[in-house]
Amino acid sequence: MNAVGFVSSDTLRANFSRAMSDMYKAEVPLYGTLMELVADTNQQVMAQSPEIASSLAQTGELQRLDMERHGAIRVGTAEELATLRRLFAVMGMEPVGYYDLSSAGVP
């Protein structure tokens, strides 16, 4: 049971993911177009193959179908990376990869 006044890690993660997605869609409008295309395609497939929609509904995956499960956050220092690791832990997440952009001349 949650302590009074605290938000669950699931809620934090969902809000964080939604905010990241909204920010990226604002910065890269074609990303929003891509998400719409994916949603339209999923709807068409489920309309043409009701058994797929039924299977997704039975397994609880239908609600998760349009959830984005990826993201990238650029950090510049080890301290920023450590801060993100701690924030991710609060949300029940783990950073899963790192690549150094300094060789590409990206600050």
Protein model, in words:
This is 2-oxoadipate dioxygenase/decarboxylase. Pfam families: HGLS. With 107 residues, the chain is an all-alpha fold. The chain has 2 domains: 62 residues, no CATH class; 31 residues, no CATH class. 58% of the residues lie in helices and 0% in strands. The protein is extended. The mean pLDDT is 87.
Work out the helicity level.
55-70%
C-alpha Rg (nearest Å): 18 Å
Give the low-confidence spans.
Answer: none
Shape: extended
> What's the pLDDT, averaged over the residues?
87
Summarize the entry for a quick read.
It is an enzyme of class 1 (oxidoreductase). The chain is mainly alpha-helical.
Ordered list of secondary-structure elements with their pairings:
Blueprint lengths: L8 H19 L1 H20 L1 H10 L18 H13 L17
Keywords:
mainly alpha; 2 domains; 4 helices; 58% helix; 0% strand
